Amino acid sequence: MVSTALPRVGKGAAPGPVPPEAHEGPLPPTALPRASDGGAPVPVPVPARAQGGSSPLRTPGRTPGELPAVHAALICVALPGLVVSPEHGQLTGRGLEGFYQHGRRLLSRCQLRVAGRDPISVQGRSISSDGARFLAVVRTTADAGPDPEISVERLRRADGTERITLASSSARPVRFPVEIALGTDLADLATVAAGRAGPELPASVHASGMRWTSDGAHCAVTAQPPPTDALASAGVLRWAVELPPGGACVIQLHIRGGRPARPPNLGASVLPSSREARAEGDDPRVAALLERSIDDLRALLIRDPAHPADLHVAAGVPWRCGAAPAEALWAARMALPLSTRLAAATLRTLARAQLTAREPGLGRIPGPLRDAGPFLPPGCTGVEATLAFPVVLAEARRWGLSEPEVAQLLPAAERCLRWLDAALGDNGYLAESGPGAGFVRAETQAHAHRAALLGGELLRECGRPGADGWLARAGAMRERFRAEFWVDDLGGGRPAAGRTADGRPVPLLGSGAAHLLDTGLLGGGRLAPGLLDAAGTEQVARLLGGPAMDSGWGLRGLAVKEPGYNPYGHRAGAVRVHESAVAVAGLAGAGHEKEAVALLRGVLDAAEAFGHRLPEMYAGEQRTAGGVPVPHPAACRPAAVAAAAGIQLLTTLAGIRPDAPGASVALHPLRSVPLGAVRLAGLSVGGEPFAVRVSRLGVGMVEQAAEWLQLGG
């Protein structure tokens, strides 16, 4: 029996904690990336003018440096545009509220008053990834009775527009003043998030609205129809409105900065729309989840400024609006059933970011460190992206990425494998560098094994040298891992979460174990072998499906009885949607359908509670009868991997295993049919439309496919 003494590594151990700017999601405010139309995340310094002094925009009761809560906010996103609104719709400048473009807050305050009163909010809800609708009523002294006769609808969009409709239900003409108070600090997103936004800037009357300037930045708000009066000192626009019986009027606001907003049809070339890719079935939630997942992914698309045709997804809103290599690859991989175009563009973008021969670490894709909880050292997202690159390329080829595109990207994948060859230690493991140097993480070994196995087969099928060596090395990795990473205990044992530099196991049970079940696609619709043998896989399935890990809403990041468990810990107990989806797919592929279905149903129920826009994480609190999932106050929502996870969860129901180079596709649907009959249309295999149906008896049927595709076993 291997000792289960728990060595503490990472925080508190030499060489010390990770610097704040190295952490990943949720990031500290001083390391928040700019929202941009491309490029890597960059730290945003706090402007000197925001360092001190009082500010009417500072949130009371919040310490500077503390992330503001966003779980109750309505977020509209179409990067580089972003709007954060409270449920009542009035932008008061508190917290993170406001219109943003390219990482700068263009408008922090937009307060509407009708007949001298604030409208009474009755509803605020998201209507799409980039839009929200707010309804309110106004009582006036002219009302005939106790019922309000003036209604207000505000449609707010991430492109910087707001449409205000005032409607009368009165049987007689009504007249009333309308005013909109505007203000801004033109602060960076990081400055706002840190609670250090400066005072509002003085406004000037500009055309039919207001204008603000500061340090080369500016914002202009124009109104249509033009206001009858504008007071620059207060930032107020005024109208005298007269409505006939049953009449209505519309006021349109346009908020613009110095840089162009999101180009039209930005996502059309890499992802289908939610009208083109559809889901339907006995459970109506499948349609809503797929629609929202696609819309959120399209809303998070950003472009490489130097290569505007190459789009990839940002990590999430509002904290990580810039490029994140590992998460961009994970999202592209899970979205492969929709199209290979996103994967191809993401791979091209990251291939250009690889370290060159003149730099140490040839072939590695740069990326920041990621906090891994209280007992593990931080991991490097760049290493994760480097190992994911050949995997995504190999699987994109299975789904139908053209051979010329594969040939273009193959040298970059070979560089990733050469880096892995140089980085593997004498013991055959890939160790961490930096904080926790020498620590060997189980999850990283799973990524390395998958890269070696799928990368080796990719090289073999493309006639490139070194294929046999990588396939043999993958086999050696499996044997070594099974012998040295398994910790025996009275419960049947478990894989260690990692091994310290001196070889001691860290027997934590967390969601990272799900990656041990994530194998990958080989030729002929076969699943690649995993790091664990059949007995180990069965034991891990039992552990992941047990109450310590399955919260009822998805997979916890850390089992409830482990030291350091925290239901709100972003890697210490919270449910991370991406890893829940990885677990569902891995369990289903290994034949452990009971555990897979339980996790799938839990995440689907959580998605319904969140309006089908899954956050990147939520609290790992145990599900109770009649309960709802508890949001995490600082979670990104939408998030790329959470949106893409919705796609993977639904396609797992059908078990699609394509092999476009072999002109075949196999179906392995969940036999228990957990959601009843399901139909998925608008998918793509081999570059052509693909549709599949799973009947109530669990029988999979291909309804639409390329003529040259054959249905495999």
| Corresponding CATH architecture of the largest domain | Alpha/alpha barrel
Distance between the termini: 41 Å
Task: List unreliable stretches of 5+ residues.
Answer: 1-61
Specify the number of helices: 12
The total count of strands amounts to 36
Strand content: 15-25%
Spatial order of the strands in the main sheet? 7-8-9-10-17-14-13-12
Rg (CA only): 27 Å
Number of domains: 2
- What is the CATH topology descriptor of the largest domain? Glycosyltransferase
| Percent of residues in helices | 10-25%
What does the average pLDDT come to? 88
Structural shape: elongated
Largest sheet: 8 strands, antiparallel
Q: Would you state the CATH class of the largest domain? A: Mainly Alpha
User: Which structural class should the secondary elements be placed in?
Assistant: alpha+beta
What report would you give on this structure?
The chain is α+β, with helices and mostly antiparallel strands and 713 residues long. The protein has 2 domains: 74-256, Beta-galactosidase, Chain A, domain 5 (Distorted Sandwich), CATH 2.70.98.40; 278-711, Glycosyltransferase (Alpha/alpha barrel), CATH 1.50.10. 25% of the residues lie in helices and 25% in strands. It contains 12 helices and 36 strands. A hairpin with a 2-residue loop joins strand 12 and strand 13. Helix 2 packs antiparallel against helix 12 (640-654) and helix 5 packs parallel to helix 7 (442-461). The longest helix is centred in the middle third of the chain and has 21 residues, at 403-423. Mean pLDDT is 88; it is low at 1-61.
